[in-house]
Amino acid sequence: RSKGIRDALSDYILRYQWMNEMEGERVGVLAVIYDHHYVGVMESMTDIQHDYREQINASLHIHMNDKYCLEVIIVKGDVIHIRDLTERLMRLKGVEHVKLTSAGTGELDKVSDD
After folding, report:
1. What is the pLDDT at residue 85?
2. Residue in 50, 48, 20, 55 with CA at minimum distance from that of residue 34
3. Distance, CA of 32 to CA of 76 (rounded, Å)
4. Which of 81, 102, 104, 114 places its Cα 20 to 30 Å from the Cα of 21?
5. How many angstroms separate the CA atoms of 104 and 38, rounded?
6. 101 Cβ neighbours under 8 A, 6+ residues apart
7. What architecture does CATH give domain 23-113?
8. 14-33 mean pLDDT
């Protein structure tokens, strides 16, 4: 059990370091799992998404079960804004999980040139 906790903590630290080392324009997906019964969480998520409307290209809402929903948010923009968006969602009460997967737009240019 302690190995599982240690591995999870290590993964979290590496992911957080990676997120802070990113720079420039990025494109990515934010996956957010939250308890929709938690008072105010849906309104807070909507308000936050409106604050970052220039970075959010689209979102998809999925009902996982009677308690949890998954919000998939497609983002593109400067990593500073994407990081701020991610951290604001992580701090929300009622949010159980937030994961950002992204790539630099320059990295995509290199792939298409090959």
Report:
1. 96
2. 48
3. 17
4. 114
5. 34
6. 28, 29, 31
7. 2-Layer Sandwich (3.30)
8. 75
Q: Partners of 56 in the beta sheet?
A: 75
- The structure tokens listed for 46 are 């909507």
CB 103 within 8 A of CB 29: no
3-state secondary structure 23-82: CCEEEEEEEEEEECCCCCHHHHHHHHHHHCCCCEEEEEEEECCCCEEEEEEEEEEEHHHH
Nearest to 41 by CA among 100, 99, 91: 91
The radius of gyration computed from the CA coordinates of the chain, to the nearest angstrom, equals 15
Residues in contact with 24: Cβ distance below 8 Å, sequence separation at least 6, in sequence order:
78, 79, 104, 105, 106
Read off the tokens for 54.
């220039």
pLDDT band at 12 (very low <50, low <70, confident <90, very high): low
